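Case study 2.
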Amino acid sequence: MTYRAASAASGKRPTREHLLKLEEIKKAAARQFYAIGYSGTDLRSIANEVGLHVSSLYSYISGKEELLFLIMQDGMNAITTSLDNACTSTDPLERLRNSILAHIMHHVERPFLAWTSHVEIRSLTGPYRDSIMRMRHDYEQRWLRILTDARESGNLAEGYDLKLTMYGVLGLGISVANWYHPDGRLEGNEIASMLTTQVLNGLLPRSGADN
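Prediction:
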């Protein structure tokens, strides 16, 4: 799937101004999707937030579903890049620790984007849905490899179902995007660090768990 906005479909290369405005539209839409859901948001309210007439939105997107798809695509690209950047260590346990931390920080730093990318898959259809599902599958397979490497290196306790563990970690990120507030008692990086330690304490062999 690729961006199919009117200017792109016409064969014209989008200008920098066009792309910047599209980013503004996506950010406004993600905020509204997070606050009231995809079904509760209309294009007119998005257009109003970014200072456009609703008809002008069609210079940037083909419709609301494409807008949702573009937001979810951005979310999956961002979270996958974060995971790749976290996996530079040659030590499997360090890769796992950094990956958990990066996953949680993605949801701390991009709550609207992250929440929409996870929850609103139910609102996508056809090729849009298929494309995001492939990206999700790829992200999950990377996580299974990280967990498998940590287990095969002897760093994880035996008896854990790795796929279930993966879904638990991914779900933790979604939860953080739901309740984290930047004006809360703890900074986002403090929350991510504490949760990462707690997850690892549950996965490491008893003799190797942090106290």
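Confidence is low (pLDDT under 50) at residues 5-9.
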